[in-house]
Amino acid sequence: xxxxxxxxxxxxxxxxxxxxxxxxxxxxxxARAQILRRIGAEQINxxxxxxxxxxxxxxxxGVWKRNPQxxxxxxxxxxxxxxxxxxxxxxxxxxxxxxVKLGERIRRLLFGSIEKGI
Length: 118
Prior knowledge:
By secondary structure, the chain is of the alpha+beta class. The protein has helices spanning 25-38, 68-111, 114-117; strands at residues 10-15, 42-48, 58-65. The chain is flat.
């Protein structure tokens, strides 16, 4: 939206997806507020949800105003998040690969070489 809709000068952001683990509510709210700070949002507030279905969760709101500096900040944050996401995916792939190899080694130890069984 920041690049394709130049006429939009202000975007109000509301992050409020419920989470399952009760001990993570405030931690997630703080992380969401930090994300909004990184993209250059202002007027960031963490508001508790009191609805019975959402009790304990928080809504994090902020306002992002479009100007040349905020677009640069937003793009820098976006590049950072994309790089971090690629790193997490690569790490997960590495861990997954290691687990597969470990499983193969355990099977060989327990059942002998697959080649011997043929």
